[in-house]
Amino acid sequence: MSWTVVLVLAFGAFALKVFGFVIIGDRKFPPQVEAVIALIPAALLCALIMKDTFTVGHDLQIDARAVGLVVAVFGVWRKVPIWLVIVLACVATGITRAIS
Amino acid sequence: MDALNEHAHEGVNYDGIVGPAVALGFAVFIFAISFGVLCVNAGGSVPKAMAMSLLVFTGASQFSAVSVIAAGGTAASAVIGALLLGSRNAIYGVAVAPWLPGSVKYRVAAAQFTIDETTGMTLVQNSPERKRRAFWVTAASIYGFWNVGTLIGALVGNSFDTQKYGLDVAFPAAFVAMVAPLLSTRKAQLAGIGGAVVCLATTPFLPIGAPIVISAVVALIALVPAQRKSRRS
Hints:
The structure holds 2 protein chains of 2 kinds.
Chain A: H1 3-24, H2 31-54, E1 55-56, E2 59-60, H3 64-77, H4 82-99
Antiparallel strand pairs in A: 1-2
Chain B: H1 2-5, H2 18-41, H3 46-56, H4 59-70, H5 75-86, H6 88-96, H7 104-112, H8 116-123, H9 128-157, H10 170-179, H11 186-202, H12 210-215
Helix pairs in contact in B: 2-3, 2-4, 2-9, 3-9, 4-5, 6-8, 8-9
């Protein structure tokens, strides 16, 4: 992780916030644009979950991380506190790795 | 939200604002510690992790960038994916701007704190004065917890073997917790499934990190007209 990434990200994230808050401000985004932007997090976060659980480089792979994901999904579904969800998911994967 | 409303009796002027703001801050604190640990393990340093949390200050984007870098993705895909994820803050800005009037300097400063939590807390209040107050109280709580948590995580992060303790799973576990509240509508569920499928389908042949960026295209299903309402019931 280079400083360039950190600073470009910092500038970009701030620019997006200022764009909406100060530049667009009283006017509105076209409703279609707003609807598309509103759906981006759902698509991207689910893609990130797949990448972080089922891929290694360019390969698809099912391993101990899948156990952690199942635990996380179950925990969130059962409304377990977030800190416990993260801890339990990591422990589940760690144990699976240790015994396999 | 029920748990948050329990705090509604504390304080006088800040009734129902400080309690929920602190409760949100604590949830964010856990994410922040995880972020600090993962960031230093992805080749970040304590100063870089802190620069991310102090300056970027939008959690999902920070996690996303570190996740892509950790997987060996390019800097470009890490940045573009993170910024696509941060584009919703522009929408939030439009939503809260009417309640935070002031000089350009004031509005630019407020923009930095316009994220999920501050927007949510602001919009649910029932008077302009409470909205303005809720925005700044929540901003202070989240910014404080987020940065202290990041510092703690970054300081202890290098002493963990992330593979051994399964800490790499903190990424998908955190993303599951972040995405769950978003999947309340049919279209959001379809976008989530679509994003997952696109990511897995393109991983074998796209540069690492690029599938994350490409998956955002699925959000265009927002433009598909809603299906005809069924006449049942």
